[in-house]
Amino acid sequence: MDFTWTAEDAAYRQRVRAFLERELPSNWPDIARHGPGSAEQTAFSLEFCPRLAEAGLLVPHWPRDWGGAERPAWEHLILGEEMWRAGEPRGAQYMNVNWIGPVLMRFGTEAQKQQYIPEMAQGKAIWCQGFSEPDAGSDLAALRTRAVRDGDHYVINGQKIWTSYAAHARHCFLLAQTGGAEGGRSGIAIFLVPMETPGIEVRAIPSLIGHGDIHEVFFTDVRVPASTRLGAEGEGWSIITYALANERVGIPRYEMGAAEVDRMVGLLKERGRFCDSVVRMRAAEAAAACEAARLLVYKVVDQRARGAAPGNEANLARYAVVTAEHLVTDFGMDFLPDTFSGGEHASFLSHHERAIVTGIAAGAAEIQLNLVARRELNLPKEP
Amino acid sequence: MRLEFNEDQTTFLTFLGLMLDSPDAGFRTVADWGRFDYGAALDARLAENGFFEAAAEKELGAVAAATMIHEIAQSPVTLECAASALLRPFLGNDLPRPVAVVVDDAPGAVRFLPVARTLVSINQAGVRIAQPEADAVEAVESLYAYPMGRIDMKAQDWVLATLDPVRARVLWQGAVAAELAGTLKGGLKSVLAHVRDRHQFGRPIGSFQAVQHRLAINGIEIEAARMQMLKAAQTQLPHDSCLALGYAQGLARRAIYDFHQFMGAMGLTLEHPLHRWTYRARLLRAEMGGPSEAYGRYATQRWGAA
Predict the structure, then answer these.
(1) Given its phi and psi angles, is residue B37 left (phi above 0), alpha (psi -120 to 50 degrees) or beta?
(2) Which element (helix H / strand E) includes A365?
(3) Are B215 and A372 in contact (CB under 8 A)?
(4) Most C-beta atoms within 10 A of its C-beta, which of A6, A66, A333, B113?
(5) How far is B296 from chain A (nearest CA, A)?
């Protein structure tokens, strides 16, 4: 057991950090303030991610055949930590890098791979995920959007909601029912739907987390070729389970929180308030929660690095990240309230806005607790 | 970064596990409803087999020692392991054990003093060692499931140790963090067994989401405390040990409350071992000034003075 980084890892971190220091513009915190799904940040990511790709820092963990360098899992983690420390300038494209690309590599047809993966590897693709529906949130298998086979096409009708990045996405990773009326997991299929297909309407939902971040997406007689289906009919749930295992693995949000605590402490020192023992204790408590989340995420990455089958670690890690995010925000709000209320500090506000999402997006915190209770603690299922 | 145990550590922990599965480590009530059961037989077997020397062995090291502390703390028997496993190897394995530790001349009763053959004092001035006479110790009846005692510190014949006091504090913080994380895990396992078996309203109480969520949060945080103490043991850096101790001490209050709530009246009895873990944890939570002191020290390590 060794919690230290190798010299190679440390050099890699320095390389990423130096790239970000060199390439991120001075107004990046203001761009980030618009929210990860905003027009401003999307435009920025489409200009920034190709530069990352050119430097070999977008998909280094991917196979060489798809533009990667087959770098180890720990390097992917370091890359993610540095991105989050800098405010996650990849925007929506983190999804491509973390799971949409790998899912296509594993389950896609050769044509689908050739069509979609290269532009992801070049940092030019924006996707959205069509998962949640008005009556299918945490209970995702209850989704009702239906795709009906019509010759060599499918006709899709239904509604998605809380869809991030939909206004700017060129494609949607869409879940729909193709089975019988009973629905459920066994009837779910996945479609890779071009967003310019007639019949798709996107409406932005005004939100707490930045303009353009969440949407409703309506599908009315949307006709797509059968070749847009990923995997077989009825195979969608197993693919999505694989996808979510990847999405939920190793997103180092704690690094952004830890960076904010450092910035908050810096400001408190400038103001002469860091001599207060309560302030010092609360700063350390927030840092400890970030460290707890970090080490639980590291367990997930370690499993991956060893090629072990995923266990329950990702569920533990995700909840720990939620706790950390809120402790960091509370610390800042309690001792630097003016920087929040007066809108003075862009990165504090960006972190504050994102913190509220952490426990909701990609599987609510309480769902993680259900899973931990049943799978890790072996408690009986609710009748 | 590599988070799995090496082959030697795995073997070491497998043998330790076998010992902890023996009746020597099991729960039994004590005459006159005493609050603790000192695991003398287990202690002797561990000593005979050299388990307390692991930290000084290259292939086992402090990670194996800290894990041993964590595993033993999950047992309902009370055993002096933390100081013997993580401090004594760096003071000299010829020191007689059990070992009791006083930090910063803290007043009050000292854990393990009535059974200790070595007393270690850690403060800014240095690390000192004494071997108190048995009649110098006043045993104290205590709620806290440890043998507790007082001693006149000034009356002891102290010998200055060569161990750097900063390193000694780091090791001891890590050892206490390991013991507390393990103690909480022992309590959690005991409560989990109860809520799986105990039925109310026609179903196991552990099937209620209100119970599941609180125990899941405890499970997550106790595992995070284990990871933090392992990191502290491996790096032996002051900021890691402060963080590990502060984190474990910080989560203990709510965990202890939840454990007793879900154990209900059974947890109030001395016929059930829950108190062995929760009362030890209460005392460990306050060790070395509690979470505010540990976090305050972390703040100084990480961000410097005001």
Answers:
(1) beta
(2) helix A365-371
(3) no
(4) B113
(5) 5
